[in-house]
Amino acid sequence: MTPPPPTADAPHGGPRAPARLTHRQIVTVLYGLMLGMFLAALDQTVVSSALRTIADDLHGLTAQAWVTTAYLVTGTIATPLYGKLSDVHGRRPVYLWAIALFTAGSLLCGFATSVHQLAGFRAVQGLGGGGLMSLAMTIIADITSPRERGRYQGYITTVFAASSVVGPLVGGVFAEHATLLGIDGWRWIFLVNVPLAALAVVVILRVLHVPHEPVRHRLDYAGAVALATGIVPLLVIAEQGRSWGWASPRALALYAVGLAGLAAFVLLERRAGDAALLPLRLFRIKAFRLGAVLHFVVGISMFGAMAVLPLYLQLVQGMTPVEAGLATLPTVVANVAVTLVVGRLMSRTGKFKVHLVAGTGSLTVAMALFATLRVDSPLWYVGLGMLFLGAGLGAAMQTITTLAQSEVPRRDMGAATASVNFFRSNGGTVGTAAFLSILFTLAGPRITERLTAAFTDPALRRTAGEPANAVPLEGVLRPGGGVNLEDSAFLRALDPVVARPFLEGYVSSMQAVFLTAAAVSLLAFVIAARRVPDTVLSAD
User: Fold this and answer.
1) CA–CA separation, 298 and 319 (whole Å)
2) Nearest-CA neighbor of 402 among 22, 147, 78?
């Protein structure tokens, strides 16, 4: 493919210097990036609180996991592709194409008639959403010096944090309406993206004018196919392994396909050289290598914990999805405040290691606090853990991205930024799948153990046998022992005394999950403290 000629703003030949923009000009560009980023970030969280309603309406409760899996798989695969495409063709046209794909997928999702159809349309959404986050970070790196990046990337991070609260609230509100303007309430979760996307396109066309010097690379189509062959089976196992069985024939077959695809990908990338989708030479750069590893490790802990914490608030504390979203406000407040403060400190001093170490340390403290939660823990105690979680994410995430970008040649910035986002996304997938697997693997036996002990009390047995409790327990208590945990709605109908053993079993399992997350966060802390150099970022 023959690349277009260099733009008038870029020199012919040689590395291009960073575009020198004033603070006001950079903030203007940020408006467009933040709007596009908000679309992708919101869609990752808005569906979760309405998924049960969607699945019931489309008569696909058992297949609902594919609605999230489809978006995750295509978004993860598309991320490195966008990095390379933007290096070749420029940031703005590729960013606009990502928004167009995301909007088309949203419109299709709004008119889906089955869960499987919805999953297919979510895959289209993911193709667009995969580029919105990584391209925003790449564009910021294009127009700022290494020292300034943390400050401006912090604005993007705050959008992601805000969406984690706004998403469940919006999803819950739409899901609670049977119809809105003659259309099923949950369908507006997707349809509302259309006017937001149109606004984002208008803003980006007006403000996003970044000089671009085309990189003369052919696209690595073979590498893209090999990466998809390697990653897609492993992501599907991560999402479906608990229901299939991690050692089932279906899972073993996908393991084999995935590993073969990854092996082929490495061989093809070595052969592709500069045209590689994920240039292997980047891993010779220590800062990039550490950034990729830390993104993966922190992604495991962050996304895994964020998947389990709402379950604690809803199952144990009895909150609705909307209430649970509001309860996470301490995380957002701490995240936004620390992100902005750390960004300014990095811009002023050029130092980032101290913030990275503090951030991963704060994450470890948060997970350790969550590991001590009980059935009757007060909300202020949960909120304290959320403050540490938000502060840790605010200090760590932007500094990890800055670390990964700090020594990368400008011609590889798109591929490098997309690559570290790729590792974070995969870490999140591993963390979510592993932690939920731990939770539900432990929950059944631990609930059974506590029920057995509790039912030695004659008074509790009599209470459980009353019609108000016996009816909800039908199908939950298995005749041969054990419990069926496919649906948790019965907990709300039980007498608190009868529900207590179930809640204790759930909390005990969640404690094990958060203890695992604390160990993973501690690993990130050790890597940051011992391996990351205490360097000062360049102001140029």
Assistant:
1) 28
2) 147
Q: What is the pTM of this model?
A: 0.79
Whether the CB-CB separation of 483 and 477 falls below 8 Å is answered with yes
Residue 244 burial by Cβ neighbours in a 10 Å radius (0-12, 13-18, 19+): middle
Q: What is the mean pLDDT of the chain?
A: 81
Residue 213 CA to residue 5 CA, distance in Å, equals: 8
**pLDDT reading at 11 higher than 50:** no
Question: What is the per-residue pLDDT across 27-44, written as a single tens digit (0 to 9) for each?
Answer: 878 877 888 778 777 777
Among candidate residues 144, 127, 136, the one with its CA nearest the CA of residue 91: 136
- Helices 115-143 and 413-454 sit at what angle, rounded to 10 degrees? 130
User: Within 13 Å and on the Cβ side, how many CA atoms surround 151?
Assistant: 19
Measure CA of the first residue to CA of the last residue in the chain; give whole Å.
Answer: 33
Residue located via tokens 């978006």 = 71
What pLDDT was estimated at residue 456? 85
The CA distances from residue 82 to 85, 215, 347, in Å, are 5, 14, 28
- Using DSSP's 3-state secondary structure scheme, residue 232 falls into helix
- Short-list 39, 276, 50, CA closest to 180: 50
Distances (CA, A) of 81 to 7, 429, 506: 22, 19, 41
Q: In terms of Cα–Cα distance, which of 225, 325, 315, 217 is closest to 268?
A: 225
Structure token digits, residue 307: 């998947």
Question: How many beta carbons lie within 10 A of that of residue 263, not counting itself?
Answer: 12
Q: What is the pLDDT of residue 1?
A: 38
Cβ atoms within 10 Å, residue 328: 22
| CB 32, CB 96: distance < 8 Å | no
Answer whether residue 140 shows pLDDT above 70.
Answer: yes
Spatial separation of the C-alpha atoms in residues 250 and 245, rounded to whole Å: 9
List helix spans (H) across 144-248. 146-176, 188-191, 193-207, 221-244
Q: Which amino acid is at 1?
A: M
Q: Average pLDDT of 255-281?
A: 86
- Residue among 313, 295, 326, 314 at smallest CA distance from 393: 295
Give the pLDDT confidence score for residue 385 in this predicted structure: 95
pLDDT at 187: 87
What's the pLDDT at 533?
85
From residue 257, give the alpha-carbon distance in Å to each of 69, 77, 234, 254, 468. 18, 16, 9, 5, 51
The whole-number pLDDT of residue 6 equals 38
3-state secondary structure 408-429: CCHHHHHHHHHHHHHHHHHHHH
